[in-house]
Amino acid sequence: MSSKRKLDSFFVPQPQKKFRTNPEETSIDSEPLQTTQTEASHHRAYPFPVPHLPPHIIEALASVPASDGKEVNDQPDLDLLYFQPYIPKSAQQDIFDFLRRELFFYRVQYKIKRYGTETQINTPRFTTVFGVDTSSTFSPSGDLVDSQTSKPVPRDRYKCTPRPIPHCLDHLRQLSEIFTGATYNFCLVNYYANGADSISYHSDDERFLGPDPSIASFSLGATRDFCMKHKPIPPKVGEPPPEQNLKPPLKLPLTSGDMVLMRGKTQANWLHSIPKRKGKGSEGGRINITFRKGVKQYATENYMQYNVGDGGVWKWDMKKGEMREWQSSLGTKVESEP
């Protein structure tokens, strides 16, 4: 079946489902896609409900991708599909504003030990994550069930509390799957408040993603450079360093609405980063959304640890125009669940 045909059927209006008001319940169903402003995704692990995408944004997303993807594979082991943009211009600002306003984020801190020395790491960006690995899935009520038996998972399967992908992000996940041919069960969201927020060179080559993982990475908001470089190639005995080691980093100026699909041998052989940025254009905020598939159980623990952690919840303050630690209606700060 062609992508066009799949997309047409994907947007057929579905019967409306009753809005749930109990925060212990969840509205994680990928349908209906026609929503009202009163609908929201609920789950016991969410600090507050996350509204569904407004109908006008869903309508605008019916025309994705807004441009054809360009293959970038002119260097060893590199396999990218680069959309400039993927999300239509008419929807870019609205989606950015909506997600920044409605999602909850974390400023994760953790400690690592290298060569016997413990170091405190302060994540230089806001993060959040949703999803669960392939060993489990979410029931319609939001409970975790075993993927094979459909029975409740053992209580000791996870130390953390996995959260389902809310409707506003799950809609984009489904659209991504149609055009990438891949399937995803995790959604990671980073918010870069300004040019001082960053992520250092790394590769998403963890074993829990399986071989040759497909990762769809979306950008919204301010333009930031996406830098890539090949992992160092050991030189052969008696020969000079491989030419690839001497090449400058590949730089993609990701603008709002762009999507980069990283696939094939890319993660195994390449590093990528979002470096700090100064000067013109460094003041604006940027949201990065990545979809990926965790095929091992410890993917869930890893993503929760490094994207949620033990700190407080942060939410966009429209009056102050910045992220602020969120307080519940009781006036108390809310800590993330372990």
Walkthrough of the structure:
With 338 residues, the chain is an alpha+beta fold. It has helices spanning 3-10, 55-60, 89-102, 167-180, 243-246, 266-269, 298-307; strands at residues 40-41, 50-51, 70-72, 80-83, 105-106, 109-114, 117-122, 126-131, 136-138, 144-146, 186-192, 199-202, 215-221, 224-230, 250-254, 259-262, 270-274, 286-292, 313-317, 322-325. Strands 3-4-16-13-18-11-8 form a seven-stranded antiparallel beta sheet, with helices on both faces. The protein has a four-stranded antiparallel beta sheet with strand order 12-17-14-15. The protein has a three-stranded antiparallel beta sheet with strand order 5-19-20. The longest helix has 14 residues, at 89-102. The termini are far apart.
Count of strand segments: 20
Helix content: 10-25%
**Structural class label:** alpha+beta
Catalogue the unreliable spans: 9-35
| Cα distance spanning the termini | 43 Å
Output mean pLDDT. 88
> What order do the strands of the largest sheet run in, or round the barrel if closed?
3-4-16-13-18-11-8
Task: Count the DSSP helices.
Answer: 7
